[in-house]
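Schema walk-through. Below, the input block comes first and the output block second. Nothing else is stored per chain. Lengths vary across the set, and this one has 389 residues.
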Amino acid sequence: MTYPLATSSWDHAEIEALERVIASGMFTMGKNVSTFELQFADFVGSKYAVMMNSGSSANLLMVAALFFRKSNGLRSGDEVIVPAVSWPTTYYPLAQYGLKLKFVDIDFETLNYDLQSLESSVDLNTKAIVVVNLLGNPNEFSVIESIARQHQLIVIEDNCESLGAVYSGRQTGTFGLLGTYSTFFSHHMSTMEGGVVVTDDEELYHILLSLRAHGWTRNLPQVNRLTGTKSSDAFDESFKFVLPGYNVRPLEFEGAVGIEQLKKLPEFIRMRRRNAAIFVDALNTNPKFIVQREIGQSSWFGFSIVPRRGVGVDRQKLVHVLSENGVECRPIVAGNFAKNPVVSHFNYSVHGSLKNAEWIDANGLFVGNHHFDITDNIRSLARLLSSFA
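--- output ---
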């Protein structure tokens, strides 16, 4: 592929970081992970950050943590609103913890919540809103926060595709009570595999520390919001379990690489935004396709290409043309997720029509963005789309 979906953002700095970990002989979660967490929290503007082995695990622990709060948490059977377009592991933890999902349509242009549908979907059973910032694009948080305040709803964010996006001067992922990020290979920064949960809530932070590693107390501060005061005898606390947790710890490799990647992240995002300006300008003159309408400052995970209704674009043929010309493409995330057979295992409902999600599912696609200049790729793509149309 001459225009791939993703490319490595590593150089000698990451390789040397891995070599330092190997030389240390300490591979399990340790000081590199702790340092990365502090630096990541500082970057996004959150009090606490907890790293784990993937963005999917981050979503799992974000949901799990809300079940172990002393007050105002979630319970099995509670209704949670979700957008109809996202990645599977946005939804799976909700279903696995017995929550009832209510699918709501997305906006045709922003690919985030259709705000009218979102507002009308809230009822007396609703306990939380899951906000997904799709392909780097922030949601309209001023509206969502107003809805949440009016109905006293918990807001959590799946920000796995949108590290570095900004809305009203604030990083996405920090608007919810908790927010998640992914540092997988194809994302804004890469630690091979990896994910992060952030929060400003100390109790939730301590719950996350326990859930991440077996539900034990070992990683908790001496005085904490989960167990109170730990024993001063480390032996007594070494195998003390207080929550039904997991083992989703990252390795020191991910932490060490993350430290190096964070140094480069501002420039990565700057280049992604520069590429996006060229992409939007190149596609704006094409009458058959629309691109994602930016809210706030998107970090542009990738570039969506959606045929307008009624123009007769055949996506299968378009994918063939793109592939034949070296352009790698994919469906827009998982499309309309409510159509997938796996939802037969969910407790769920659909609010109104999902017409926009269905159109995106059947007709949309996206191509990659990168941390370096891809002007030539974008202009070649624009010519292909013009010729195809």
